[in-house]
Automatic annotation (TrEMBL):
<dbReference type="InterPro" id="IPR024176">
    <property type="entry name" value="Citrate_synthase_bac-typ"/>
</dbReference>
<dbReference type="InterPro" id="IPR019810">
    <property type="entry name" value="Citrate_synthase_AS"/>
</dbReference>
<protein>
    <recommendedName>
        <fullName>Citrate synthase</fullName>
    </recommendedName>
</protein>
<keyword id="KW-0816">Tricarboxylic acid cycle</keyword>
<dbReference type="GO" id="GO:0005737">
    <property type="term" value="C:cytoplasm"/>
</dbReference>
<feature type="active site">
    <location>
        <position position="280"/>
    </location>
</feature>
<dbReference type="InterPro" id="IPR002020">
    <property type="entry name" value="Citrate_synthase"/>
</dbReference>
<dbReference type="GO" id="GO:0006099">
    <property type="term" value="P:tricarboxylic acid cycle"/>
</dbReference>
<keyword id="KW-0012">Acyltransferase</keyword>
<feature type="active site">
    <location>
        <position position="337"/>
    </location>
</feature>
<comment type="pathway">
    <text>Carbohydrate metabolism; tricarboxylic acid cycle; isocitrate from oxaloacetate: step 1/2.</text>
</comment>
<keyword id="KW-0808">Transferase</keyword>
<dbReference type="InterPro" id="IPR016143">
    <property type="entry name" value="Citrate_synth-like_sm_a-sub"/>
</dbReference>
<dbReference type="GO" id="GO:0036440">
    <property type="term" value="F:citrate synthase activity"/>
</dbReference>
<dbReference type="InterPro" id="IPR016142">
    <property type="entry name" value="Citrate_synth-like_lrg_a-sub"/>
</dbReference>
<comment type="similarity">
    <text>Belongs to the citrate synthase family.</text>
</comment>
<dbReference type="Pfam" id="PF00285">
    <property type="entry name" value="Citrate_synt"/>
</dbReference>
């Protein structure tokens, strides 16, 4: 019915909503969040059930196509992804050109952007078949590009994908395997990483997803839109938070582990940082994903026999923050990133790969949201208004008079 945007523009009025705190940019049938109750559902299915019972590719199918796949559909989807895991040889050479110390997120976004150069046969956003093949290519190639970005950073040779392995196993092997030695999959690691990808797979109109939609609203192709999403995820207030949490925990540990002193410094703003991994624009309650990750972190570290003093520090931080008025009043709870870094670290990922792992998990959400946007007849090019606060009209002064 009522188009408020049209109404306001007719009256010459605009709403100012910095950070889009209260402004919906679209309608969507993909992900439901009730931030006050701490509820998250993909296509109606509670995140707890999907995390426990589903696999990442099954969830990717669900997000993108709207329904859980039947067995034959899942097999077909998985096979088509396996068919496209290789990246072009020319693209493999890109990685030699990046500086060794490049951040893997910068390499990842460049890689995704470059896909537009190789697949010019399938860039039309309105051709269903082309969108389908681009979807499969992205899902298939992102782990390969991500693993290459890691190998580049440590100066190791890259490995070709092994399609006898599952999606996550293949990524683990390409990341940690060596061409000289057979790589042994650790089933605990593979299962947990798959589950973490499920937890990250979509989160409605967050910063990176909104970026994907905004870029896509200009009818830019899927690769161009998703590479913009990767860049939006790079920042420490969004996907970069998992890296920032580990940096923070390491700092507290190096300073002698005084958690109370750190919380005090956060509150009086002398710590120079927020309590990373805490707080969320939408959740004013425990992030349901954080609850799942917290339990997984404890189990995984135990199963992998990796005691980590940082886990104790994280748990103490949580306990102190949850009983402190500052955090209680502001409804600040741990978000998904508070414990994920500890698991990634136990698996052997360096801190700079953490946000890349987030990107791998979020990919199906970006794709599903882009497809929903492009197929929605109500979609218009995203073009926010502004409230101008600059100078009123001024007379131009010639250079010699300034
Ligand atoms: N530590 C300390 N104080 C905080 C924190 C925190 N982590 N988060 C918010 N606050 C405080 C703010 O200082 C502000 O207090 P004030 O009213 O006294 O000024 C109040 O809580 C509200 O904070 P806003 O910044 O207005 O909340 P917003 O919704 O804009 O920010 C965000 C949400 C960015 C996630 C914020 O909580 C934050 O910076 N958290 C740390 C970074 C982080 O973990 N990001 C990951 C987000 S989840 C994700 O991307 C998967």
């Amino acid at each position: 019915g009522l188009d408020i945007g049209k109404l306001l523009s007719k009256t010459g009025k605009v709403t100012l909503d910095t950070g889009f705190v209260n402004t919906a940019s679209c309608t969507s049938a993909i992900t439901y969040i009730d931030g006050d109750a701490g509820i998250l559902r993909y296509r109606g299915y509670p995140i707890e059930q999907l995390a426990e019972k589903s696999s990442f590719l099954e969830v990717a199918y669900l997000l993108i196509h709207g329904e859980l796949p039947a067995e034959a559909e899942l097999n077909e989807f998985t096979d088509s992804i396996k068919e496209h895991t290789l990246i072009r040889e020319e693209m493999r050479r890109f990685f030699d050109g990046f500086p060794r110390d490049a951040h893997p997120m910068a390499v990842l976004s460049s890689g995704v952007s470059a896909l537009s150069t190789f697949y010019q046969d399938a860039l039309d956003p309105f051709d269903q078949d082309q969108v389908e093949i681009s979807t499969v290519r992205l899902l298939a190639k992102l782990p390969t590009i991500a693993a290459h970005s890691y190998k580049n950073s440590i100066g190791h040779p890259t490995l070709y994908p092994d399609n006898s392995l599952s999606y996550v196993e293949n990524f683990l092997r390409m990341t940690f395997g060596l061409p000289t030695t057979p790589y042994e999959i650790d089933p605990v690691q593979a299962k947990v990483l798959d589950m973490l990808f499920v937890l990250h797979a979509d989160h409605e109109q967050n910063c990176s997803t909104s970026t994907v939609r905004l870029v896509g609203s200009s009818q830019a192709n899927l690769f161009a839109s998703v590479s913009a999403g990767v860049n939006a995820l790079f920042g420490p207030l969004h996907g970069g938070a998992n890296e920032a949490v580990l940096t923070m925990l390491n700092r507290i540990n190096a300073d002698g582990g005084d958690v109370n002193a750190f919380v005090r410094a956060v509150k009086d703003k002398s710590a120079g940082t927020r309590l990373m991994g805490f707080g969320h624009r939408v959740y004013r309650n425990y992030d349901p994903r954080a609850a799942i990750v917290k339990n997984a972190a404890r189990d995984v570290l135990e199963q992998m026999h990796r005691a980590d003093p940082l886990l104790d520090i994280a748990m103490q931080l949580e306990e102190i923050a949850l009983s402190d008025d500052y955090f209680v009043e502001r409804k600040l709870y741990p978000n998904v990133d508070f414990y994920t870094g500890l698991i990634y670290k136990a698996m052997g990922f360096p801190t700079r790969m953490f946000t890349v792992l987030f990107a791998l998990g979020r990919l199906p959400g970006w794709i599903a949201q882009w497809r929903e946007m492009i197929n929605d007849p109500a979609t218009k090019i995203g073009r926010p208004r502004q409230v101008y606060t600059g100078a009123t009209e001024r007379e131009y002064l010639p250079l010699e008079k300034r």
